[in-house]
Amino acid sequence: MKKYVKYGVMALVAFVFIGTFVFLYQKSLPKVTEYELLTPERTTLEKTTVATGKVEPRDEILIKPQISGIIAEVYKEAGETVKAGEVIAKVKVIPELGQLNSAESRLRLAEMNGKQAENEFGRNEQLYNDKLISREEYEQAEVKVKQAREELQTAKDNLQIVKEGITQSSASFSSTLIRSTIDGLILDVPIKVGNSVIMSNTFNDGTTIASVANMNDLIFRGKIDETEVGKVYEGMPVKLTIGALQNLTFDATLEYISPKATEENGANQFEIKAAIKAPEGVKIRSGYSANAEIVLERAENVLAIPESAIEFSGDSTFVYVLTKAGTPQEFRRQSVEVGMSDGIKIAIKNGIHEKEQVRGLVINEE
C-alpha cells in the first residue's frame, strides 16, 4: 500500500513539474495579434453641426383694442383662419363719469340752442315771406339754424360714443369691434367674455385680444456655438428635422446670423434664422422643436479611412500598411497627409493608395 502511495506522489510531482514547464514555455512565446484590415475608399465627407431651436411664424401680430372696456363678445377661437378686417371680438365701453356728465351737459345745451334757433328761424321766415326783412337777413337766420342742428347732432353722437363707443353713422368704423389686421391663422385668444381690456397707448402696451400669424411664412430660430459661427453664411442650405412630425426633414435656407453673441451656460451662442420651405399638405404648428443640420465643410471624391486607424504623433500622422498577410500579420509604419474629418472617417491626401490595406482595431489576440 505504501508503495502505491509513493508512486502516486511521484506522479503528482512529475505532473506539476511538467505543467509548470509547459506554462512557462507558452508564456515565453511571442503573442500573435490579429488586426482588422481596412481598405481606403473613395467617398464624400461632410462636417456638420446641429443647431437646436423652434419653428415659428416670421411675423406674429398681436391684435390690441383701441378703446378700453369689457369684452362683450368673442367671435373667433384659436386655430381658426381669419381675413384682414374680420371681427374677432367686441368691446363694451364703460363710460367715465366725468366724460358722461360733460357729454350730457353738452347735449342739453345744444337742445336749448337748437330750439331757440328754430323759433328765430320760423319768425324770420314769416317776416321774409311778408317782405318785411331782406333776403340777407333770412339767409343769416337759415345758417344759424343749420349750425344749431349740426351742433345738436354732434352732441348726440358724442354722448353715444361716450356711452357705447360707437355711433349709428360710423358703425363700420367702430373701435369697439376688434378686427384682424392681416390674413392668417389665429394662434391664441387669451381673453374671455367679461374680461376688462385696456387700449394701447404711450404708457402701456394694452391688452392682447388675439395673436394672428401667416403660417405659410415660417422660420427656424435657433443658436449656434461661436466655434462654428465663422463657418456659416447667409444663403447656406439647411436640413430641418421636426420630431413632432415623425422626424420629417424639410429644406430651409439660412437668412440671418446675429452679429452679437449671448452667453448661455458659460458658452457664447449666436442666434440664427432660416426660412422654411414646407411641402404641400404638411401642417406645421408654431413652437415645434426642431434640429437644423448645417454642412460646415464638404470634400467630394476623396480617399478616406476610419479615423481610428490614424496614429497621431505631434504634427505628423501615420498608418500601418499591410506588407504580409497570414499569421502573424506584418505591417510597415507609413507617414500620410490627412485632410478633413467628419468625426468618423478622415481624408487621406497622399501616402497610400486605394489598393493598400491598413491596420485597424485588434480583433483577436493569442
Describe the model:
Helix 2 packs antiparallel against helix 3. It is rod-shaped and about 165 Å long. The chain folds into four domains: 79 residues, Beta Barrel (conserved putative lor/sdh protein from methanococcus maripaludis s2 fold), CATH 2.40.420.20; 93 residues, Elongation Factor Tu (Ef-tu), domain 3 (Beta Barrel), CATH 2.40.30; 76 residues, OB fold (Dihydrolipoamide Acetyltransferase, E2P) (Beta Barrel), CATH 2.40.50.100; 68 residues, Helix Hairpins (Orthogonal Bundle), CATH 1.10.287. With 366 residues, it is of the alpha+beta class. It contains four helices and 20 strands.
Q: What order do the strands of the largest sheet run in, or round the barrel if closed? A: 2-11-14-13-12-15
Could you describe the largest sheet, including whether it forms a barrel?
6 strands, antiparallel, barrel
Q: How many β-strands, per DSSP?
A: 20
H and E order: HEEEEEEHHEEEEEHEEEEEEEEE
Shape: rod-shaped
CATH homologous superfamily title of the largest domain: Efflux pump adaptor protein, beta barrel domain
Strand content: 35-45%
The oligomerization state is single chain
Which regions contain 5 or more consecutive residues with pLDDT less than 50?
A: none
Distinct helical segment count:
4
Radius of gyration: 44 Å
Instruction: Please state the average pLDDT score.
Output: 83
Assign a percent range to the helix content: 25-40%
What's the architecture of the largest domain, going by CATH?
Beta Barrel
As for the CATH topology of the largest domain, it is: Elongation Factor Tu (Ef-tu), domain 3
Tally of discrete structural domains: 4
How far do the termini sit from each other?
Answer: 45 Å
CATH class (first level) name of the largest domain: Mainly Beta
